[in-house]
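Appendix B, Record 12. Input sequence as logged:
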Amino acid sequence: MTNKNIAVVGAGIVGASVAFHLSQCGMDVSVFDKNEPGSGASGHSFAWINAFSKQPRHYFDLNYRSMDRWPRFAEDLDEDIGLRWGGNITYCSDPDEGKRLASECERLNSWGYSARLISSEELSKLEPNLEIGQFHTGIYTREEGHVLPVKVAEACMNQIDAAGGKLHIGTEVESISQDGDKVLLHSSDGHMEFDKVVIAAGTDSTSLALTAGINLPQRRSPGVVVKTNPLPSFIKTLSTIYLPALSKEEKELHIRQSTDGVVMIGAGDQESEAEDDSQEYADKLIQRASLHFNQLSGVDAIRVPVGFRPMPEDGLPVIGSSPANNNIYLTLMHSGVTLAPLVGALAALEITTGISNADLDPYRPSRFSIRA
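Logged structural output:
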């Protein structure tokens, strides 16, 4: 395919990566987003780059491969995207949870992932500001990191713009239709014709795909995080930490401090669903975290409105051309932050060459029925 005219609908971290890689392949790329780049689910994400709990094995492998792509992706973007390595430590005070963590460590090692059990003394040396509290078992996965997804999306847009691509930011695509071998986008700016269209609109992908007769089912997956204003660095080594619940009524906390000093906190694991985005709840999370980091005592919590994860019905990514229309390519997934570099590169390769990558076969849209 040479200099084909391709539209990408959605400038979150996945859509931005696909568009960037298409631009790198020499395609004429147009990006549409009804809001600002990275302002949807990407902007709400904890943005933990990992393969820690990803199953089944093929999904773990996909995430692990993408982790290795992040340094090169960051280099290609040539901007500060807040990429920080340092690994994650998850620890617990409950013996039963300790057995589960030890079992997870064994599984990860057998799959070639760097993980080891860690003592409270070692944890204290890595994070001297951490008040550890009761400690039974800890697991250290040192290859993990985090990033600032909005900065990634913006950097992709800058590269696309510099390469001559067209950015339709603030333009909502209302529907998609087929006209012979072309695809028409119907937006608030009128009708535009393209050779191919990539739907990467996050939670809006389902309704948009439906206008083209494509079934792309999602399940509702709300999540809540809390932020602070920038603070002096106090998390010294680790990129993320999972802190144990202090009672059976509470969920564990996950915490990170970005390169810009902002602290982000959430409760539960990365799949936990929550909708309480009240200031009271935000204050409570900060207060809980301050029991472990004194630097958070008295810090104002910034509530973040509840966000909704792009979540395919079966929990696995959707990547590939629509079985009903080869000119429409679909990308929908949770773990978009971890997967963005690899999915962007592989999707661009499939779109530009027309050659399917067998590694993406478990994620094809054909597993869902086509709308009659």
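The radius of gyration is 21 Å.
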